[in-house]
């Protein structure tokens, strides 16, 4: 199978999707991203080649070179789209907010791989550009299916819902059935409890990524007053921020919150290392979650490295790489679905 099918990963980031594909046994030949911070984690942890390039400059002939000697070409990607992603602004600020998705569509039209997968935020389905994107597949003879996925159902330990489009020229392609239910959801406890305890601002000597941000005296008092699963409404009034007193601030109870041990985490974002940026407080320790804990909740392997040994681990950079990643487990599910599909088609020939 691996010698006759391969993938190329557009907008590959730190390699979450590629890692999941490789875990499932579907090889990835190359990953493209414009962000230079992606190069080390992508190359160090995966077998695929990393190419730092704006997708606007990528040609179909270039993709065909990666697909040489492969009978089934798989093109995958998560196009960052404004207004949903500040990551999109790292590409070409002169283009429209949908240009990256349109360039993805251009490469599909020109290259016409046998299989395409696109993962994105649920909000994208409400925009005309997504309908235009879907129509491309019908005009080119693809079978296309859009899934609205609750990642909890597939073993991702966070409340994360995503839009996944699967298209195939070989026949109807759909996701494998859910692998988890509420009785066996992955939880915060199962995912991060084993890690060494830290105090706010501390870094583990054994794992540079197990590093948490400092807390001001006020935020230290706030997190000590916070209950797992609670809100800032549990605090004494003198601890509340000015924004909490405004009408608009009352609708964000999860800000400055602690996670719960025996429930999934909230959606991991690019700012997940900050106590005040969401429900990112550790369930028990008086600190925000560490970068390693965030990566584990995104289902990256515990050995996944994001920063070269001679470079500093910066919260803003690594947080961005982790928060923007496709959860590795979700990628694994997509890859397994593709492999099952191709195997089934071949069995019928």
List keywords for this structure.
single chain, 349 residues, alpha/beta, Rossmann fold, seven-stranded mixed beta sheet
Task: Tell me the layout of helices and strands.
Elements: E1 5-10, H1 16-24, E2 28-33, H2 39-45, E3 49-52, H3 60-66, E4 72-77, H4 99-111, E5 115-121, H5 128-139, E6 143-150, E7 161-168, H6 188-192, H7 217-224, H8 242-245, H9 291-297, H10 315-323, H11 328-348
Parallel strand pairs: 1-2, 1-4, 2-3, 4-5
Antiparallel strand pairs: 5-7, 6-7
Helix pairs in contact: 1-11, 3-4, 4-5
Overall description:
This protein is α/β, with parallel strands linked by helices. The protein has a domain at 5-180 and 327-348: Rossmann fold, CATH 3.40.50. Helices cover 29% and strands 13% of the residues. The chain has 11 helices and 7 strands. It has helices at residues 16-24, 39-45, 60-66, 99-111, 128-139, 188-192, 217-224, 242-245, 291-297, 315-323, 328-348, and strands at 5-10, 28-33, 49-52, 72-77, 115-121, 143-150, 161-168. Strands 3-2-1-4-5-7-6 form a 7-stranded mixed β-sheet, sandwiched between helices. The chain is elongated and about 65 Å long. Residues 86-91 have low confidence and may be disordered.
